[in-house]
Amino acid sequence: MSKITLTIDGQTVQVEAGTTVLEAARELGIKIPTLCYHPELSLHGSCRICVVENLDNGRLLASCVAPVADGMNISTRSPRVRKARKMNLELLLANHPDDCLGCDRSGNCELQTLTYEMGISRNDVERFAGEKRDLPIDDVGPSLKREPNKCILCGRCVRVCAEVQGLNALEFTGRGFNSVVSTAFDLPQNEINCSNCGQCVVVCPVGALTEVSEIERVWEALADPEKYVVVQTAPAIQVSIGEEFGLEPGSVVTGKLVAALRRLGFDRVFSTEFSADLTILEEGNEFIGRIKGNKNLPHITSCCPGWIKYAEHNYPDLLNHLSTAKSPQQMFSAITKTYYAEKIGVDPANIFTVSVMPCTAKKFEKVREEHRDSGFQDTDAVLTTRELARMIKEVGIDFLNLPDEEYDEIMGDVTGAATIFGTTGGVTEAALRTVKEVLTGEPLERLELGFMGIKETEVEIAGRTYNIAVVSGLNNAAKLLDEVRAGTSKYDWIEVMACPHGCIGGGGQPIPMTEETKIKRTQGLASIDKSNTIRKSHENPDIIRLYKEFLGEPLSGKAHDLLHTSYQARSKN
Q1: Which of 34, 66, 537, 572 could form a disulfide with 61 if both were Cys (CB 3.0 to 4.6 A apart)?
Q2: What's the topology of domain 144-211?
Q3: Alpha-carbon distances, residue 273 vs 178, 280, 365, 494, 548 (angstroms)
C-alpha cells in the first residue's frame, strides 16, 4: 500500500493509506480521548469525543473514522478541539444519571474518567440541564442487568453482539432524545435470543450493562449458622482476579485467592479444576463411544453455557451432536451435595454451593431446570470475578499481602489438563490427552490451540486421523455449525467457546479487557499447566477415588444421573 505523510501536533508521521487519524496519532504516542471507539469493533464515530482540527481548512473531524490524507496538518489540542470535546461530553453528562456513588462502574467508568481529565464541573453540566430519560431497569433475568438511563448510545454493545457474537440481540430504537439501545420489542433480556455471554458488559464504557449481582445472597449464606457454604473457583480466576488489585494480567494468585475466600468465611474452598478433570473422564469416554458407534459426529463440547443457550435458540436440530456432559461447575455442585456431603456427614439441604466464574452465562446455567440432580438446586449462587473482588475489598482484606494457602482436601487434587480449560483449545487438548492414552497408552503431544477465531488440526490416534476444530466467538461458531447442518462438515470433534479466547475473555472478567490482557491470562494458565506434576485428568488421585468409592466408572448409571444433562429447543426470536 502507498504511504501517507501528515503532521499531527507539529510531529510528522508516515502511515499506510486508509489509516485513521486516531491510529496515526497513536503511532506518535499522542492520546486522543474516545468513547464509542473500540479497537476490536467496527468504527462508529457517534460520540465526537475524539474530534481533532484540520488546520488547513478549520474542519473538526472525528479522528476514529477520519482517514488520513497526504500533507494533512492536524491539531489534537487546539482551543476549538478542547471546547468541542468538552461540550460534547457535557451534553452526554446532562442526560446521564447523577448516581456515580452507587454505580457498579464507579472508579472504572470511561465517562467518569473523561469528566475528571477534561476538568468538567457540575456547573458546566447544569447549563444544559433539562428533561432526563426515565426508563425502567431490566434485571428480571438471572444473568444480565440493563440500565438504559445510563446508556450514552456509543453502540459498542450493539456492535459486539452483531459482529462478534452474531446474535443482534441489541439494537438502536427511537430517534433524537428518545433514542435508546433495546431488545426486540423491548422484551426483558431473559425472553430473547441472548446467550448471556456478557460481552456487551465487557465493552460498555459505563454502567448501562452489568451482571445481576448475587453478592448479598452470598453474604447472607455466609452469615447463616445453619449453612455450610462451599465455594469453587474456575481455572481462569487465578490469573485474572489479581488485576482488580493492581497486578499485571496473567499473574498467578491461586494461593492468595484461596486465602481470601477462607477469610470471607467460606467453610470449604475448592477449585473447579477438580470437576474439569471429571468432565474430561465423562466427555472423553462419551467421545470414544461415539467414535466406535460412528454416531452423532461431530462431537461438540458442552462446557460453555453461553454456547449451549445459543445452540438451543439457533441450532436446535443439532442438539444431539452436543456432549451430554454437564459443565465442570454443575458437576462439582452435584458431587458436593451427594458424594462430598456423605463423606463429611453434612445434610445436603444445609449445603450452600457458590461458584466464582469468569462468566455471566453461568448465572443462567445454575437455574436451569435440568440441574437439580442432587435433589436440590445444584449450584446456589454464582459470583463473577468482579463480584468476588468487590466482596474482598468491602471487608478490607489486604489481598496482595495474604499468605498462599492450599485448596481443601477430598476434592482438592487437580491436574494441568483441568487448568487449561480456561482458554480456547484447552478443553480439546485436555480431552485428547486422556482419549489418546486410554486408546493407545501413548501420550498426546502439545497442540497449541489457544487463539481467537477458528483453528483446525489433525490428531492421529490408534491408526485413525481425527479432524479437530476449535472455535471461540459465536459468529465464528455459526460458520462451522452451518457446515454440520448442511452435512459437509469434515470434523470429528468441535470445541465451542462463546467468548473470544474462551473463559479468560469471559463476560464476568475484570474490565477493561484488551487483546493483550487475554493473551497474558492465557500465558498464566499455560505456566500453571507446565508446572503441575499431574497433567492428565485420568491420573487425578481424587478423581480415581471418586469413581472407586461412588460413581463406579465413567458413563455408569450413577455418573449419568449426576453428571450428564439434556437440552431444550428454544425459540429463535
Answers
A1: 66
A2: Alpha-Beta Plaits (3.30.70)
A3: 48, 10, 18, 21, 19
Choose the weakest-confidence range: 217-226, 428-437, 498-507, 514-523: 428-437
Selection from 471, 411, 446 nearest residue 526 by Cα? 446
May I ask the CATH architecture of the domain 215-563?
3-Layer(aba) Sandwich (3.40)
The region of weakest confidence among 103-117, 407-421, 439-453 is 439-453
Summarised one tens digit per residue, pLDDT across range 189-223 is 889 999 999 999 999 999 999 999 999 999 999 99
Of the two residues 442 and 479, the one the predictor is more confident about is 479
Among 91, 175, 88, 99, smallest CA distance to 129 is for 91
Residues serving a catalytic function are 283, 286, 303, 323, 362, 365, 370, 503
Q: How do 299-300 and 268-271 pair as beta strands?
A: unpaired
**Cα–Cα distance measured from residue 19 to residue 17, given in angstroms and rounded to the nearest whole number:** 6
The domain spans of the chain are: 3-90, 144-211, 215-563
Provide the pLDDT confidence category of residue 448 given band limits of 50, 70 and 90. Answer: low
Decide: 24 and 14 in contact? Cβ < 8 Å.
no
Reported as a pLDDT band with limits 50, 70 and 90, residue 352 is very high
Q: DSSP class of residue 548? A: I
| CB proximity list for 343: less than 8 A, separation 6 or greater | 410
Contact 329, 379 (CB under 8 A): yes
Collapsing DSSP to helix, strand or coil, 88 comes out as helix
The distance between the two most distant Cα atoms of the chain, rounded to a whole number of Å, is: 80
Across 119-141, average pLDDT: 88
User: What does the alpha-carbon distance between residue 149 and residue 61 come to, in Å, rounded to a whole number?
Assistant: 28
CA separation for the pair 253, 404 (Å, rounded): 8
Alpha-carbon distance 446 to 474, whole Å?
26
pTM of the predicted model as reported, rounded to 2 decimal places: 0.94
**What CATH number was assigned to the domain covering residues 3-90?**
3.10.20.740
Let me know: does 211 contact 384? Beta carbons within 8 Å. Answer: yes
CA distance 324 to 300: 10
Residue 435: which pLDDT band, with cuts at 50, 70 and 90? confident
Question: Residue 111 — very low, low, confident or very high, per pLDDT cuts 50/70/90?
Answer: very high
